[in-house]
Input
Amino acid sequence: MGKSVLVTGAASGIGLACTKLLLEEGHHVLAFDPQGEKMRAELPECDEITFFSGDVSKTEDCAASVGLAVKTFGGLDALVHWGAAHSSKRWDELDADECNYVMSVNVTGSFLMSQAAAKFMMKHGGGSIVLTTSTSVLFGVTGGNGQGGPAYVSSKGAIIALNRSLARALAPTVRCNAVSPGITETAMLDGYTDAQRQVMTGRFPLGRFGKPEEIAHAAIFLISDKASFITGEVIHANGGSNFN
Output
């Protein structure tokens, strides 16, 4: 029997790939993204999907998206939260406005989406939450040419701590885990030069960047019953780059 899943960042990249895979597997999906028209253009119109255009850093949008999922599909079994803001500015380029914006979307947004989902799940038999951190946290990436800068890296580090806190607070009713993608073939790489791509690929024992579908499968595993004894963990889907 399929699950009811809320997916953020569903208009592009890993979130789009995840939404498509969930639909293929017979799940019901509420697709959430601020780019409403793009999301609808990229995804099929069918009974198994409904759309919500909103901002994850706004409490009312997070609550409304959960409410719509429950109203449309009769419940909410899982949240897979890919939605994020990127920042490539280096330490001497970054200002308070951009730093605060990235933190608001990535950290506060992760909390607010989790809070909204958990309020329903804790009262209705449980569920699973998957957040998104980044392999950039392991390397302390400094920004420039499309790479995550200090605002982005700091926000993704905070999500690891948030994941651990939520996993303990919501247990045993709700499981909370995170996926840590390595460099993945998405629009976030548009700023990479050819030389940079060659250098960065050399850090991967598997010899290539990830595909959005490969990262999405990690999250789909975590919300599945096969991961029923996993909570508070981070799955590193990064081609082995964390030990190279």
